[in-house]
Specification:
By secondary structure, this protein is α+β, with helices and mostly antiparallel strands. The chain folds into two domains: 82 residues, no CATH class; 85 residues, no CATH class. The protein is 36% helix and 29% strand. The strands form two sheets. It has a six-stranded antiparallel β-sheet with strand order 6-5-4-3-7-8, with no helix packed on it. A hairpin with a 6-residue loop joins β5 and β6. α1 packs antiparallel against α2 and α2 runs antiparallel to α3.
Amino acid sequence: MLFRLAIVLTLGLAALSAQAQTDSLSADPNALPRGNAYPARVGDQPQKYVALDVAGKMGSYQRYRFFTNQNIKFRYRPDGRKYNGKIVAVTDSSFGFATENFMTLRPDVVHYRIDDVKKVYLTRQIPFVTAGAFMLPLAGVVFFLADVVNGSRGEGHLTANPRALVTTGALIGVGGVCYKLSFPRYSINKNHRLRIMQTY
């Protein structure tokens, strides 16, 4: 059983490495930038942007910036719906998505007030971790099915080894942790504040 687990983990790590390389080569240029890679100005003019300030449990602080032409995914309080789109305009109290006016068939901008945003969803590409959010649960399921098939050959009927269930559960659990780290969601409150900022 340990030999089979080693094979599954080896295949899983190989898949994670390939996925991490693919993610790094095919990164979306409009994805959320990290660190100091933010466009400070457009031409010579200051630029407004949406800022999500996240306070950590140990006094840490992180700011995520959403500029024009970047995607933002959020849940809107008035209708309870989840939206995902590209920001085309930012005002002092809202940001807007482009849409088509069904009456005039011309482009229009729909604005969403930042004080009505209930939750913001982020996507963070973390090497190995982001790929593990999907590959580890899949590896757990494959490992469990392989154990059932191999164990059933001698028994003559379907049977599962309890140790295989523990291993499968562990892989799925670790995949869940990787998912939480790679796709965090923040409810807007006193610790997670959404505001409009401006570059200078």
